[in-house]
Design brief:
mainly alpha, 2 domains, 7 helices, rod-shaped
Amino acid sequence: MEEFFEKNKKWIFIGLGVVAVGIVIVWVWKSKNEKDEFGALSFQSDIRPLFNQSDIDTMKSIGGFDLSNYEDVKTRSEDIYSRLSDKSMPCEGGWPGENIEKFKRWMDTGANP
């Protein structure tokens, strides 16, 4: 075994290097392609589309804030999340769990505009 290692040491190290580079490439590719699941979300592209016009109009009239406005939603994000979680919001029925989790991730990753 020792003789085999000595004869093939160079190729063994090259093989290990190739495997290591492959692991890094897969990790980088995977992290870039999983933004929706694990990366920072934005209000404009990820959160705003979750609110329909009826939700927006209702909250403007009874809640006094605009669900289509980044600053309003960011300022009230904890309250909104609480209402989404207990299914008392939106008025037309609760969001699916994945949308509630998306809203929570948006909050937890900096509530980007």
